[in-house]
Amino acid sequence: MPFDLTLAGVPTAPTPCTYTWKDAALYALGVGATPDELAWLYEKTEGGMRVLPSFAVVPTFAPMFDLLAKTGGDLSLLLHGTQRITLHRPFPADATVTTTAKVRDFYDLRRLAVVLVDTETKDAAGALIAETTYTLIFRGDGGFGGPTPPKEEKITAPKGVEPTFVVEEATRKEQALLYRLNGDTNPLHADPVFAANVGFTQGPILHGLATYGFLARHVTRALAAGDHGKLRVLEAQFKKPVWPGDTLITEGWQLESGKIALQVKVKERDEVVVTGFAELF
């Protein structure tokens, strides 16, 4: 089925999302939070329970997935290329927010197609809380004659320089099954037969956004002393799959520009699975 190119630039209607501290805590557990990070998990935390900045993706799931279903692309061959969030203020522990989504454009890479989806999430008063950008790759859906993706500045780890921080943490065998309860129920992350049929014979892979949440926790813990209001921007490119049970090693480099270059490696295979950058307020 060809892409519906008329979707580009047209925002969806605002989609409401009502969540409570239980949803925020479930998200935190899905991205590896432990009792040592009780402020992400306990509703009676002094001063109020905190919400991880990367929770910003959760209210986007419904409008973003609904929009993807209308594009005409083959969702069974969909891969997540990059993810970016920009925070304008912290998410409260309990709230009703609304999110709009739109396809920025459809891009053609011959065998692959790239679709950029932007979202905005606002509070009940209409104040902007967060923006996100999904870069989504449709394998086998290229060749439709669209433009190539725009080139963006790449922020990479400096060679030969020791990282400013290193955080090592193992994921759990059930990590993907736990994370999917936040709303991303793609069978690629749960069903071994489905995973094998689309090329992942080792089994269901961990959501890229689960690894992204681990990354957000590691950056917040290492550079902001766990302060949920300090992370402004987090962008990650998903380079290789992660399987539940893999050990993640996050490394970060504080750059003169003020940005923090990031990479995540899987310890067991000594390979880089995520690269990206962060900015703090």
Kindly describe this structure.
The protein is an alpha+beta fold and 281 residues long. The protein has a single domain (5-280), classed as Hotdog Thioesterase (Thiol Ester Dehydrase, Chain A, Roll). It is built from five helices and ten strands, in the order βααβββββαααββββ. It has helices spanning 21-30, 61-71, 175-179, 192-197, 208-223; strands spanning 15-19, 78-87, 95-109, 112-122, 128-139, 165-170, 231-238, 247-254, 260-266, 271-280. Strands 1-3-4-5-2-7-10-9-8-6 form a ten-stranded antiparallel β-sheet. The protein is globular and about 55 Å long. The relative contact order is 0.17.
Blueprint of the fold:
Layout: E1 15-19, H1 21-30, H2 61-71, E2 78-87, E3 95-109, E4 112-122, E5 128-139, E6 165-170, H3 175-179, H4 192-197, H5 208-223, E7 231-238, E8 247-254, E9 260-266, E10 271-280
